[in-house]
Write a structure and sequence with these properties.
Structural class: mainly alpha
Distance between the termini: 56 Å
Helix content: 40-55%
Radius of gyration: 14 Å
Largest sheet: none
Strand content: under 5%
Shape: globular
Number of domains: 1
Low-confidence stretches: none
Mean pLDDT: 88
Number of strands: 0
């Protein structure tokens, strides 16, 4: 039996999280937590769903903000170019020469 998913409402400001089915909406929940959740929310989501489920949800995302992409890359030790959202990006910021 899975422990309850304990996450704050911060990432779900526009959604009633109590109405989400934690299995049917797991991809949405995982991505939203990485996009807008607190550190504790991210850890609790990984513990609840497990590494493989979280990794698959993030790798297949069409879009992730830069901070979420970088965080997922560091946490799971996955190169950014393995993420679908990174390879689909029409624009990648580059370092400006000083």
């Amino acid at each position: 039996m899975k422990k309850d998913l304990n996450i704050s409402k911060r990432a779900f400001w526009d959604t009633d999280i109590s109405k989400l089915d934690k299995e049917a909406h797991k991809v949405f929940i995982i991505r939203r937590v990485f996009e807008q959740g607190k550190w504790d929310d991210i850890i609790n989501t990984i513990v609840y769903y497990g590494d493989d489920t979280v990794i698959n949800a993030l790798l297949s995302a069409e879009y992730l903000p830069e901070n979420a992409l970088h965080l997922a890359s560091v946490i799971f030790k996955i190169k950014k170019d393995n993420f679908k959202c990174y390879t689909n990006k029409p624009y990648r910021p580059s370092l400006k020469k000083l």
